[in-house]
Structure formats: structure tokens, C-alpha cells
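Design request, C-alpha cells follow.
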């Protein structure tokens, strides 16, 4: 591990206080909502408490089938749950990792879809899962094929409590809908080829009335900020990197609020209102699959390739300028842990400890210093693609087959009994109040 050379200075009870915003608004309460990928802070940490144990026979409030395919996470505003999906005429759904690998030959030999998909937003009741409305954003043939294990609706939507925004990178469409499902505006951002035709996956971010889209691809990478009410472009920044699947994060640290995006070979932080670049970190390796996590003091990130692991990096709040892996010091790079970066599963930080899961092995680091506290293999956790999340002193990891490992937060490894919801799961779960939403390839479950 490299050390600093200088001193270092992502329910019901919660809804009692809900209020009605307008005739088109949602009932929403900040404490009971999960309006974007990985929650209010974008880091996968919930301030609420959902059940620690569940199964299909215990603490399962409801289960509903979601038509089509989508690895996007549900987002919640008050008593409404929003999911996006891409519905194929033949009922195609994404495959698991093993089936996807087995299909690789046909994938590389195959072609883009010949029939249109219906790209949709579904709104459900958080209380019982009933469908309140569904709205087609667009019906269109995706111009590019994707990996059999990916979906055409992998980008998670966002909601500000009054509107919901859905982005389908496969056809370049982003749309804004009100609380009744009426489309207020739609914009075409373009559909671009991705590396090895794996497809896209960067979710939306939202802040201060603006919606942010990271579109890193093989043709024309860019980051764009749109006015949430009108859809008009506020600012746009061209990016030199190629395909990346990490999602942008709004980092509210002790110094300021930053929009941080991880791309192939670099990480950049922007001033959200203007798009001005605050800092950039180079030397991070190839494309990111995992998204960063953060606390008020540092943002934690890294990427690993198929056969090697990259460095795990902590950047200090207040960093500025051109950073490299040698920029260790006050208000720059806080620390680097070699060969410790995540793969597809985004990390989480809780109680001053950073948890990273890669290839079935969970590592726990001191978030301030980077010191590794333990490194333990989790049973049945080699196929975890959804991001880690944390609630009420526990860290959770959902594997592809629906088994969720539960780890007690602490300096020593303590694994609690696992939970099972059989199915195929790649989407990252969401939390709202005392409810946990787990989306599979076919079903959406509410644990409460």
C-alpha cells in the first residue's frame, strides 16, 4: 500500500409527514425516498432501517412481475416506485453471467435487433406493488447490439419528487414525465456504439434542478447537463475517453458540491452549475464498471480488468488541478491501495470503513488511511454485479442468483445469515424508509 508523504488534514412510518406538493407532484419525504441510483448521496448508504433477514416466506411485502428487460434500479419518491424497462416483442430478457458467456460466439456474429423495443416507465405503489400507470417513452429499434447479459434499460432513472427522468442510451432518448405519467419533454442525445458491443449502463444524476447524463462510448463521448423543467441544454463537455459504465455521482463534501465522473483512463470532477472542471485524475487504467462511493471527506474509486486488479484510490475533498497517482498529499490524493480496486460491484463506506467486493472476496479498509483491516472470502459471492449497499450498521451484497450476504460493520469480519430471493439479479437494490426494493430479471420484490 502506498501511504501519504505529507500529513492529512445510490417506509410507511416515514410517510406520516408526507405533504402534497402540487396536482402533478408526488407525495415525497426526503427520509423515505431514494430518488437516484444508490440513493440520496449516490453512495449506497441508507439512513433508514430495513429488515436484516428475509426470504420468500418472511418479510416479503409484495412481488410483481415487470415486463421486458432492464437492469436499472428502482427509484422511489414517497409512495411511488419507478422502474424503466425495454419490452421486446418476443419477450426477450437479459441472461445471467454463465448463459451470457456461453452466448458470446453468437453475440459477436449477431446483428442489431430487427424489431423495435418499447422503452417504458412503470409507476407502482410502494404500499402494495399495484401498477399506478405505465408510459411508453419511445418505440424504436436499437441501432446496436448488446451483450446477452446486459439490457436495453440498464440506466437507472432519477426523480426530484415532482418529475421522473428516464434515459435509454440504446436509442439516445431521455424524457421527463410528471406524477401522472404525462410526458413533459423528450430529447434525442444520440445512440452510439460501445466497446465490444457490450451496451451501455451509466445512470442519471440529478442536482439543483439539473439532470446529468454521462455518455462514454466508442464514437463521441460527452457529459451533458439539462434543465430539468425544460430539457434545454445548460452545458455540455466533450470527453476524450471511450466506453465506460460507471455512473456519475453528486459528491457533497465538506468543501463544496462536485459532479464526479469516471471514464476510461481518467476521473474528472466538475462544478455542477457551470461544467467547469475542478480536478482530473489520470493513470487510473481502463474503463470503469463500478461507480465511486463517498463520504464528506473523500471519494473512493478504482477499476479492475478481467485478469488484473487496479489500485483503490481515495481523493480528498478540496482537490484541484491535474492529479496523478503520485499526487499524494494534503487536499489531493489521500491514499492508494495497490491491487485493491472493485470490479463490477461498486463499493460502500460505512462508519469510517470502506468495503470493496471483487471476485467473491470482501476487503475492509480504514477509510481515512487506506489500511486494510481484513480480507475474507464470502460464500457464494463470486457472481455479484449489483452494487453493495449499507443500512443500520450492516453491509449487503446481492449475488446473481438472489442470495444476499450480510456483513456486520466493524474492524473484524462478522458475517450474518444470508437471505434468499430466487431469480436472476444484476440490478442494484434501493431503500426507502423501512422498505427494500430488489429487482430481478422478471420480478420486483419489496422487503418490509
Amino acid at each position: 500500500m502506498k501511504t501519504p508523504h505529507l500529513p492529512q488534514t445510490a417506509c410507511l412510518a416515514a410517510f406520516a409527514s408526507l405533504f402534497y406538493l402540487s396536482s402533478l407532484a408526488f407525495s415525497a419525504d426526503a427520509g423515505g425516498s431514494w430518488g437516484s441510483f444508490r440513493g440520496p448521496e449516490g453512495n449506497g448508504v441508507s439512513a433508514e432501517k430495513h429488515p436484516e433477514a428475509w426470504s420468500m416466506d418472511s418479510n416479503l411485502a409484495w412481488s410483481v412481475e415487470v415486463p421486458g428487460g432492464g437492469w436499472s434500479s428502482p427509484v422511489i419518491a414517497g409512495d411511488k416506485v419507478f422502474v424503466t424497462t425495454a419490452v421486446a416483442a418476443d419477450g426477450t430478457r437479459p441472461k445471467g453471467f454463465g448463459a451470457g458467456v456461453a452466448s458470446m460466439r453468437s453475440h459477436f456474429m449477431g446483428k442489431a435487433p430487427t424489431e423495435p423495443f418499447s422503452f417504458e416507465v412503470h409507476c407502482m405503489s410502494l404500499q402494495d406493488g399495484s401498477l399506478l400507470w405505465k408510459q411508453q417513452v419511445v418505440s424504436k429499434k436499437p441501432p446496436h447490439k448488446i451483450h446477452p447479459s446486459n439490457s436495453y434499460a440498464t440506466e437507472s432513472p432519477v426523480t426530484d419528487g415532482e418529475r421522473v427522468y428516464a434515459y435509454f442510451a440504446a436509442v439516445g432518448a431521455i424524457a421527463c414525465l410528471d406524477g401522472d405519467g404525462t410526458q413533459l419533454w423528450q430529447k434525442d442525445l444520440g445512440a452510439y456504439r460501445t466497446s465490444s458491443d457490450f451496451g451501455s449502463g451509466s445512470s442519471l444524476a440529478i442536482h439543483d434542478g439539473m439532470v446529468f447524463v454521462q455518455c462514454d462510448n466508442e464514437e463521441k463521448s460527452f457529459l451533458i447537463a439539462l434543465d430539468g423543467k425544460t430539457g434545454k441544454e445548460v452545458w455540455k463537455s466533450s470527453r476524450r475517453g471511450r466506453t465506460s459504465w460507471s455512473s456519475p455521482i453528486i459528491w457533497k463534501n465538506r468543501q463544496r458540491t462536485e459532479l464526479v465522473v469516471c471514464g476510461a483512463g481518467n476521473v474528472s470532477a466538475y462544478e455542477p452549475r457551470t461544467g467547469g472542471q475542478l480536478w482530473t485524475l489520470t493513470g487510473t487504467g481502463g474503463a470503469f464498471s463500478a461507480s465511486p462511493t463517498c463520504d464528506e471527506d473523500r471519494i473512493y474509486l478504482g477499476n479492475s480488468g478481467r485478469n488484473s486488479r487496479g489500485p483503490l484510490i481515495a481523493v480528498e475533498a478540496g482537490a484541484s488541478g491535474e492529479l496523478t497517482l503520485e499526487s499524494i498529499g494534503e487536499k489531493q490524493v489521500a491514499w492508494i491501495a495497490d491491487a485493491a480496486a472493485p470490479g463490477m460491484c461498486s463499493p460502500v463506506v460505512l462508519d469510517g470503513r470502506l468495503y470493496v467486493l471483487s471476485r467473491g472476496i470482501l476487503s475492509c479498509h480504514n477509510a481515512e488511511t487506506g489500511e486494510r483491516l481484513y480480507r475474507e472470502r464470502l460464500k457464494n459471492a463470486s457472481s455479484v454485479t449489483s452494487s453493495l449497499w449499507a443500512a443500520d450498521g450492516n453491509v449487503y451484497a446481492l449475488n446473481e442468483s438472489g442470495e444476499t450476504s450480510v456483513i456486520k460493520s466493524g474492524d473484524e469480519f462478522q458475517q450474518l445469515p444470508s437471505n434468499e430471493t430466487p431469480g436472476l439479479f444484476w440490478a442494484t437494490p434501493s431503500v426507502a424508509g423501512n422498505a427494500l426494493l430488489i429487482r430481478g430479471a422478471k420480478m420486483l420484490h419489496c422487503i418490509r
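Comment from the thread starter after seeing the answer: thanks! The chain has one domain: 13-447.
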